[in-house]
Design the sequence.
């Protein structure tokens, strides 16, 4: 990723605007052990309190990296009950990177965040319908399957 992904200007700009990046060698102690880093590259989205919210392992091209990082930001906000912020990041991912590997999980989480914000189950069903139309074989479509009955 050092030669293909990280040098891309849009990747640099996205990381600079949204993260405090820290590179830790995989054999570094105690950090690699604390965060269970077994392979490189491992990218972990952490809260300021060092709580993990998202992890990827292996190579990602520029578009996939940005979409994965957006998912990490969305999950961070979701897991801290900041549903409007989560929905903004997840919408950014779905709108800008709708065919990425992160998109199905983002669509699922849009439904969940919307439900948790409003207590209206319609967004859960809408998420299932969107997932089944766009990603019929995704694990996230299978996870949303019960929502079809709402």
Sequence:
């Amino acid at each position: 990723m050092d030669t293909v992904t990280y040098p891309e200007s849009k990747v640099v700009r996205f990381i600079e605007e949204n993260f405090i990046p820290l590179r830790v060698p995989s054999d570094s102690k105690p950090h690699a052990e604390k965060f269970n880093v077994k392979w490189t590259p491992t990218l972990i989205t952490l809260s300021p309190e060092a709580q993990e919210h998202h992890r990827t392992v292996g190579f990602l091209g520029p578009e996939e990296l940005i979409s994965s990082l957006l998912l990490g930001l969305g999950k961070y906000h979701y897991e801290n009950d900041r549903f409007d912020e989560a929905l903004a990041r997840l919408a950014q991912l779905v709108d800008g990177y709708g065919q990425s590997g992160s998109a199905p999980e983002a669509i699922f989480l849009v439904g969940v965040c919307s439900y948790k914000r409003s207590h209206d189950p319609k967004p859960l069903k809408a998420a299932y319908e969107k997932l089944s139309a766009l990603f019929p074989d995704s694990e996230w479509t299978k996870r949303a399957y019960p929502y079809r009955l709402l």
